[in-house]
Amino acid sequence: MPSLGADMDEGTVIEWLVKPGDTVHKGDPVAVVDTDKAAIEVETFAGGTIDQILVPVGERVQVGTPLATINGTGPTPQPAPAPQRPATPAPVPARPAQGLPSEIQGGPPEFPVGNPPAQRAAPPATVTSVDRLKASPYARKLAHSLDVDLTAVPATGQRGMVTAEDVRRFAANPPRPSTQPSTKEPTTTPAPRHVVQQGSPRAAIARLMTRSTQEIPHYYLSTTVDLGTAIAWLSRTNRELPVAERLVPAALLLKATALAAQRHPELNGYWTEDAFRPADQVHLGVAISLRGGGLVAPALHDVASLPVHDVMARLRDLVERARAGRLRRAEMTEATITITNLGDQGVESVHGIIYPPQVALVGAGRIVERPWAVDGLLGVRPCLTLTLAADHRATDGFTGGRFLATVDRLLQTPEEL
Amino acid sequence: MTTTYREALREAIRDALRRDERVFLMGEDVGAYGGCFGVSLGLLEEFGPDRIRDTPLSESAFVGAGIGAATAGLRPIVEIMTVNFSLLALDQILNNAATLRHMSGGQVGVPLVIRMTTGAGRQLAAQHSHSLEGWFAHIPGLRILAPATLEDARGMLWPALLDPDPVLIFEHGSLYNLAGELADDAGPVDIDHAAIRRPGADVTVVTYGGCLGKCLDAAEQLAAEDISAEVIDLRTLRPLDDATFVESVRRTHRAVVVDEGWRSGSLSAEVSARITEQAFEELDAPVERVCSAEVPMPYAKHLEDAALPQPDGIVAAVRKVVSGGG
């Protein structure tokens, strides 16, 4: 089970696209995995013949769990992300002693730059501290001596802590195992209308955004961009295009953002292990709200090198597939900077939360007509409030300011985008 | 007999002057005027100008003179009018009194007692309302006492004079008029241990000095709510008697520290840290602290009241640790 996002700990196989005996090549989609946020096609990292499917459809497993075994025929068959235990007996040369495990296993497989989430997911997923049980030290001691399972005890203490009194109450009157919900103890708090289930898309977003807010010292910048020239150019260009290929302002914005990120590489990449690692290319994450609720931010790859028309086509394709739940693994993991556009909703500016381990998030609001002074004359111009949320560990406001200025400048010459 | 904190202090000085001819009192206006807070009233007439000595207005000079007298074999009691003035003598106290035994390789001790008034609550504004005893409790080489009862006012001075090293006694200004019954034979008391002033089962309230009465009032209010608070009077701020309050927390599993000093870097922080260090596994809630607001003390009565720990705030803190929430 590969990690298909920085926040992914587990995934469910919802479809196998191959069966035992099939021949696959590196990069072929082999299965569809539900990550809590989207259904994503998983590609194989190795070529060969499918030997055995280890995880049946519908099963939820931790990241790092082997999904299937492949009998390698290619030159460098290599299982996907470092399986915890070898799924097939590896052809290890017989050795008299217990062996030198590190020598035999070698290091983890090398991933191309730009895929830190997968690397990060390599250690077993048992070390998550996000859902750590909160209990007072004395409650822990008491629970131990009374043989009470603390995770089952309702907490009433400060900041959601289980207190000793909670443990005593629970021990004195343990809930009887029952299938009837009516025997549940009456609770003083009214039942919430809508509960966020563990494992739901909302819970995944909650974890990721909490992590971002806790770990990343954000700084925010904002500027207003005169889109007069860009909108005029768009309407001229669109006149000559078939309806299905017409451009929207977002395409210009994406292209300009990608070019600006290329020129300010300090904002394009990942913060991992206390250091910023710039990415080679700009893979622009695009925040897309899903119908049914929730949010994904899949990547458009190498946007800086695409003509605007291709950006538009790729954006249409990406949005469609995101809403259909058919995103690809690379799209889910490889974004190097993200843009979010809430203009559709009528808001004028958005101050976003960075998608870890990225270090910057660009926000765009609604294009509104405003009185605008140019060269001492007042006119009415379509204006856009562009914002940047950036990781202060990686950059300072100076860099962020130059980045926004570059986006603005690029949007003034749309024909060159 | 019925007496006051002020009279108990005076009786303690009188007793010490009688017991040991090496003992003398000096400070600003302690003689003819009878002391700024009236503690030494009448002692000049009784013991004469050699043993009740008015000094010039120079804390550094007369504390230094006290250190010299102590090293030369006398047993001085130096009165500093209020704790803010002690800052003028801080070099004498910290660099001389607290260190001479160490610097002389044990040859010279400083058996000096310094008394001073501390605390707020009497509308004396920002420059005369400090509670800096926590600062002095930071300094190795000193013993810091905070009498909060008539017994301690009467009984702490003599053992302090017997201590071969410097002892600072902090008398809370709001306590001088505290009246009550004191045993006729009241005398020297232990100065090594904290005291449980009110036993309780649900929470340990650790305090000292001017806040003791407020904590006892709060405990009385809490009893009406069926919360049994144990109130501990630290008495000696250095060396801290951790054993007493840690043992209490081991029984009650909750602690509130009440300290008139500012919260940051305070004695309350030290007490809280020691509880966490020594009884972590017994805690059922984070240690709460009730301290003074971190502002220069306001002059206006209502603002001063708002800035100081009060029984209502102590009650609220206890409720928070006892019943969660918050």
Automatic annotation (TrEMBL), chain B:
SUPFAM superfamilies: Thiamin diphosphate-binding fold (THDP-binding), TK C-terminal domain-like. Residues 3-178 form the Transketolase-like pyrimidine-binding domain. Pfam families: Transket_pyr (PF02779), Transketolase_C (PF02780). GO terms for molecular function: magnesium ion binding; oxidoreductase activity. Its cofactor is thiamine diphosphate. SMART domains: Transket_pyr. Gene3D superfamilies: 3.40.50.920, 3.40.50.970. This is Alpha-ketoacid dehydrogenase subunit beta. It comes from Kribbella sindirgiensis.
